[in-house]
Every structure is written in structure tokens, then in C-alpha cells.
Amino acid sequence: MAEETRTVLGVDIGGTKIKTGRVLGTHVERTGFSMVDKNDSLETSLAKLYETIEEVMNDTVTAIGVGVPAVVDADSGVVFDVQNIPSWKKVPLKQLLQDKFNVPVFLNNDANCFALGEKHFGKATDYKNCVALSLGTGLGMGIIIENKLYNGVLCGAGEVGMLSYKDGILEQYTGSFFFEDAYGTSARILYAKALENDIKAIAAFKEYGMHLGEAIKNILYLFAPEAIILGGSISKAHPLFKSALDDALKTFAYQKQLENFKIEISDLVDSPILGAAALCL
């Protein structure tokens, strides 16, 4: 069966929600979700996951892809230490889902799914070597090398947010908590104020752009990608931090490398679902 005519399921296990979608070609036909509570037992959280999958499952589905914000053994299908669901210490998720739904199951971490989704459905389609950065609560990164997702050990490649930076790590300055720590309010509120020309809010995004530019310089030194695709909730504010990011890149040592380099902004709708679904393709 050709990829474009296969129906697969994408499952995104996020910080507060489990989202599912039935995907045919590039179209999400039907979606479902349930809320995640960090105090849920393993049994309760698995029951929620099964229910949410059953909302969109039908007999046309040939495989299930799952994105998890955790360390994942993609081969054995075991998920370790899911931060937003503390009861998930070592869960044989692939086997559990295959036994329950009787279709092949593929797992990876959520940042890798984002990169793969962009490669199959989004802005990374035309690039052989690129990086996808998810700008949200933290800084997630997925890496495409020679048209293939690079996982590393236990799908752990791409943790650029953990690199040392200033008095902490890069993620502290490029995730949403940067705005709360430095400006005392959320990125969402500051974004709304910046659109109303609030000077402090505009300054917040300029400072953010400078920090993100430093993160991107590190990525350029490490991987020399053709492009970086920005996604996640903060990417919507790109016009507010673009000039500061561009200024940071002016100090990159190898300017020749930047002549054809591009920063793209993801425009995928249901990106986490499509990214998880792309694991099946």
C-alpha cells in the first residue's frame, strides 16, 4: 500500500494532554484528546491513552506512531521516566499497544517526531540535512541527516537545551520559563502586549531572540544544517525576535556557511500528531 493511501494513527503524549489523530496522506481525518494528571497511576494513565486512541481508531488503520516527552528505546519500545507522568518509570508501551490494538507500533521522543513530521509533511521536505527546533516549555530538537532521522542512543540526540550557557543551560533562556523568570509573566501575555507596542514586552522578545541566536550558533557549529525549522508555541512570535536572532548570527565565525542557510517557520496544523504519524511511514 502506498504511503499516501495508508491510514495511520499519530499519538502525542504532551505535558497536559494526550492527543490522537487518524491520518490519511497529509490530512488528519479525526482527532481526540484526554487530559493528563501528573498524579495518575500507571493503570489510570494507560486507560486514558487507550480511550483516546479508541476515539479515532478504525479498521483502516495500519499502524500507530507515538511521540513521548521522554527517553525512549525505539527498538524494544520501552519508555523511561516520563516527566509529566511520574508513574511511567519503565513502560513497555510498544508491546502494550500492539497487544491492545493488533497493529504495528512505533515510538520516539516528541522532538524527534516534530523533525520527522516536518520532513514528511512540512518545511523540511526539500532539505537533506536540517534541524527542527520546538520552542515551547523547553527547547526540543530533532535532527535530519541525509534525509533520515538521527536518534542517537535511546532517542536522546539533540538535547541542545542542556548545553551550558551563562549561569545555567540554554533551555533556561530559550524555553517559555525564560519569560516568567526574567519578566515575571508568561510568553503568551507578553506576546499580546508586544502586539500592542508595549515597550517592555518588545524588549523581552528581543532578548529572547538574542539567546535563541546563541543556541542556533551552537547548532550550526555542530551540524552545519541547510536549514532550521522553528515550531512550537513561541515560534508564532518570530517577527518579534527575528532581528535580534539575525544580529546574533552576525557573530557566527563561518559566514560563508550562512549564504544559503535558511530559518523556516513551521506552518503545520496538528504538527505533533503528524510528527508521530510520520514514524509509521
UniProtKB/TrEMBL annotation:
<comment type="similarity">
    <text>Belongs to the ROK (NagC/XylR) family.</text>
</comment>
<dbReference type="InterPro" id="IPR043129">
    <property type="entry name" value="ATPase_NBD"/>
</dbReference>
<dbReference type="GO" id="GO:0016301">
    <property type="term" value="F:kinase activity"/>
</dbReference>
<keyword id="KW-0418">Kinase</keyword>
<keyword id="KW-0808">Transferase</keyword>
<dbReference type="InterPro" id="IPR000600">
    <property type="entry name" value="ROK"/>
</dbReference>
<dbReference type="Pfam" id="PF00480">
    <property type="entry name" value="ROK"/>
</dbReference>
<protein>
    <submittedName>
        <fullName>Sugar kinase</fullName>
    </submittedName>
</protein>
